[in-house]
Amino acid sequence: MNQRLFTLFFGLLSLSFLSWPATAGSASAVQTNFTEGIECLQRPDIVCAKVALQKIPPQQIYAKILEGAIAADERDADKTFRLLLPIQVSGAADDPTLLPQAAASLHASLALAYDQQSDPLRSLQQRIQAGYYWQMARQKNQARIEQNQTLIWNGLAALDKPQLIEMRGESMNTAIQGWIDLALSVRGQDDLQQAIVDWRKVYPDHGASTDLVLGLAGVSSPTAALRTNSEQPPNKVALLLPFASAAFHPAADAIERGFMAARNAAGDETEIAIYPTDGDKEAIDNIYQQAVNDGAGFIVGPLTRDEVTALSVSRSATGRLEVPTLALNQAESAFTLGNLYSLGLSVDTEAAQIARLTRDFGLQTAIVIAADTPVASRMAQSFSDAWQAEGGRLLRQVVINGETIPEDLQSRLQKQPADLLVLATEPELARSVRAFLDITIPTYGFSHIYTGVNYEPEDAALLAVRFIDLPWMLASADGSFDAYKEAAADLPQGMMQRWFALGADAYQVFAALAAPPDMPLSIRGLTGRIEITPDGSIRRTLALGQFTNDGVVLEQAP
Q1: Could you tell me the pTM of the whole model?
Q2: Structural domains in the chain plus CATH codes
């Protein structure tokens, strides 16, 4: 069968229908008819879908994808492969002008066809891809995402342990391994919640909805329990922010502004009390306890890593914090504490997303160019860990500073070229070396490479460099952010705006946790798309920006 499929789709690559310019009719009409056809299949109503198909010019890629979806629903695997494998192999499904729903449908249809061929690994691969594109859709359909993950989970649950182990050995893809390891982790376990907590420590950024997995297993997640047991939202929220520290005061002020702006936009009248900290790990326990004694039902903070670590250590014996607490940083070591949630501007999150994006594009080898600073060193290490976890190969890490001779750097890089360059630097240093880097090699940076000013003449040196940052920084024209603009108007560009966004999303996480239990634990925030996992961690997907001749542009929204 595999040989037959191989011959089939490679033989069809030369067919003329693989050239799919939108030459006939309105592109929007084609997309509308395609969407209508897919919605017909969801009902399900194949006759309706076939009527929609007749309205699409047959040379269009949308016609092929819809016809393939119809064939998959009719359980005609050969026709599904014949129509859709050439599109997948050609890369046409990755065209940014194609509706994400269409790419998702293509992969979902192929998954159904592989189900019929009893090929669970390829089916899993296709459903993971389908989920990726449904997440990208402008109007994200949460029901479709959950349906897709339910199919993934049910497919894995139907396999025995030797089959799962064999599948895992056949793939180096982290997303696939994560799903399989999740299935192996919970198999035969009495304490599913703890098994999932342990799994999430290994796969902190994996896309699997463990709330959904627990629900399918008939177990309530800790986050669901929190919401169910809360008869009413907390009537007092305490903000533990470092107003007493001269160094951290500006950040604390920006976070408070963001939190209050989000609260006001929601029309919330919950009492907010501020408890100043000074970043001292010795004092945070007493400040936290004072907030609890004063009747706070929810606590936001502390901000510094030392404070979060000290608070976690002090409560490790009891295994939980007294009230739900949203820390704005991560502890030095992992702690499994009840009532503890973590949201922060972590370089680990950025590194993981850069690694996933670039590996999805098929890049294999990378070189990291890092400034000679502690922050840059941490960025470089985070990317190295994430890249190798995704199966990529790190060729080398090059450390640079203001005394680096760019020509020497250029010579070193030319000796062993890589598929990918990653800049772990501030803007000035990145600008000084960019002209000496091969512009044909994809180059990515962290948010630190962007000053926050949309157009600066000096950024011309960074042309074509892509970087990860907050939607708030890259999509200022987004109408959904209008409610926050006045409150942030007099804050400086750059980090103060990022702290403001963190404060706004801290409120949104609080509101989500305090909401009725049937409300989704998913947020389209200023810092990214946020999902709250059962173990209290926050999974956040950021935006992708690019330096162009017209300034910084948003290339991909989360």
Answers
A1: 0.63
A2: 2-118 (no CATH), 228-344+484-529 (3.40.50.2300), 348-475+544-556 (3.40.50.2300)
